[in-house]
Amino acid sequence: MVGLSVGEKHFIQGGIAQDLRSDGRKRLTYRPIYVETGVIPQAHGSARVRLGATDVIASVKAELGKPSALQPDKGKIAIYVDCSPTAAPMFEGRGGEELSTELSVALQRCLLGGKSGAGAGIDPTSLVVVEGKVCWDLYIDGLVISSDGNLLDALAAAIKAALSNTGIPKVDVAAETTSDEQPEVNISDEEFLQFDTSGIPVIVTLTKVGRHYIVDATSEEESQMSSAVSISVNRKGHICGLTKRGGVGLDPSIILDMISVAKHVSEQLINKLDSEIAAAEASEEES
Amino acid sequence: MRGLKLPLSQTQRVRLQRAFEKLQSLSAKANSDASLTVADTIPVNYEDAFLKGHGTADLNGELVATVCGVVERVNNLVYVRALRARYKPEVGDVVVGRVVEVAQKRWRLEINFSQDAVLMLSSMNMPDGIQRRRTALDELNMRSIFEENDIVCAEVRNFQHDGSLQLQARSQKYGKLEKGQLLIIDPYLVKKSKQHFHHLEQFGVDLILGRNGYIWIGEHVEARDSMVIDQAKNIEQSTVVEGINQAYTPLEMRQNICRIANAIRVLTSLGFNVDLNLIMETVELSSSLKIDIHDMLGSEFHVLVAEMEAERRSLTTKRKR
Question: Distance (Å, rounded) from C-alpha A122 to C-alpha B52?
Fold first, then answer.
């Protein structure tokens, strides 16, 4: 990330104050979103999302495993994010680790619900094959290919798209098993089960620059931020998670204000994303 | 369609394809076999002596390209000029760069070249405008002229023996750039022309097309004494800290700046050469159609611009005939 001169910083701040940002956007306008699904053939589901120059890939891989003893009726879901060194030289070696962890944790909080798995955007009970014995383990991996700000929103959108692209193989369980043994399973390679992704939230990050806040900040704008609040909102308009970055404090009334704005923005974002996902799936089937 | 990253509807795709086909048919035929991709054979006369240059390799007795680009021949030398490469400076080019380091008697500038360019304190016009030897005091005050991260416009002066590049800024028109935005595009899209500084009077905007693909779009400033400006800037900064935002670019001018910037972004993503005429036509097209500044980056406007350019080129070629 190159630094900005005083003049440029001033220009960016002025643009945000005047509601006309450097690329002509208003404060609450997203960059055009472009979705591509099925980009990784080996995965059960994958998607690539581009938001301006930000470019991320998410993949979903399912594996048969054993549910934990504490939660026999739930499958396991893991979310990890990796920052590719192609995105920025600073991600080389272990440089991207801090950001990767931060993004992973934020996504886990926003999508997976509590420790018990309650209130998760992805319903873990739908992953169980035989209660207490066999379940699906879902590995969701995000990869940042190119970074131009607002990675969290892009990753959440990519995960949503990848999950709606995911088909989990149908499993037949051999009927006669005693209670102790691990049941024999037969994985079908023809029949797939689709996920219900309508409950998966999108994340809207509001970045505060000066006295105003903006959505979908570019990395130049992010360099000017005082704090950023990421709010994940589902289709019903409910808040699923909230994380704050940046050291500067915020007045509680501003946060409430931000939440209502995020709710409003998320409606448009979800609709846009859904239509993009549908278009991407259609074009994938065509080719 | 050159990997255009745009969501296109069916009709838009057909229209864009047609526009590109039209453009292709209009482009000069004589030169069409000069462009190569990796591993293409370069046609040379093997009986003549020739020198293998950059981007070429010998494969089973055949000369092949190792980069995508255009074949260039200078006497016996055959080389491939890569398109998406770093900027290759030529003496006299106008470039825009960012200061990365303030060193002894010199600034180092990042100009998208394979190494940082050097701007010597002695090849600058001093702020007071007097021709004199640079003293140690001047050297200490270098940061009052340019600081790290400042954007500077300069001219390529010469190459040193060790391959490093020297710049000069011996005129009022060169110097620090403020109040605007920097756009970075592929250098091959900026062709050399007589004029790289443009003052767009109807918009009150300065446009500098750096040959290194760095394009500056900012508020118009009269050639001025930078020392005075620097002091004024410091005062300005302190007022900003106090929360007075008087100094921001006026909204109307900002709209113009953004519109021009987006016009350049559209032209770049379509792969058209960026020159003043084309930029102005794109800007006029967008304002005559009352397209919102942000919507200029959408697919529909891309298609419109491609069609406009195809139309324009077909008209100019007809006129030539």
Answer: 59
Task: Give the distance from residue B248's alpha carbon to the nearest chain A alpha carbon, in angstroms.
Answer: 5
- What's the DSSP call for residue B8? -
Q: Are residues B192 and B270 in the same domain?
A: yes
Best residue in A10, A26, A31 for a mutation probing chain B (most B CBs within 10 Å):
A10
pLDDT cut 90: percent of chain A above it: 23
Closest B-chain CA to A280: B7
Q: Can you give the pLDDT at residue A195?
A: 77
Query: Are both B161 and B52 inside the same structural domain?
Result: no
Question: How many residues would you count in chain B?
Answer: 321
Model ipTM over 0.85: no
Pick among 3.20.20.150, 3.40.50.720, 3.30.230.70, 3.40.190.10: CATH of A7-286: 3.30.230.70
Nearest residue to B144 (alpha-carbon basis) of B224, B218, B219, B234? B234
Residue A239: what residue type? I
Q: Give domain limits for chain A.
A: 7-286
Q: Give the nearest partner residue to A23 out of B148, B245, B297, using CB atoms.
A: B297
Contact B180 A17 (CB under 8 A): no
* A18 contacts B251? CB cut-off 8 A: yes
Do both B166 and B192 map to the same domain?
A: no
Nearest partner of B150 among A9, A223, A23, judged by Cα: A9
Which residue of B238, B245, B262, B302 to mutate against A (max A Cβ within 10 Å)? B245
pLDDT digits (tens, 9 = 90+) for A59-105: 999 888 888 888 778 888 889 999 888 888 888 888 888 889 989 98
**CB of B112 within 8 A of CB of B96?**
no
Query: CB distance from B7 to chain A under 8 Å?
Result: yes
What is the predicted pLDDT for the residue at A156?
92
Answer yes or no: are the C-beta atoms of B109 and B168 closer than 8 Å. Answer: no
Task: Show the domain range for B173.
Answer: 86-177
Which stretches of chain B drop beneath a pLDDT of 70?
A: 1-5, 28-33, 127-128, 223-246, 320-321
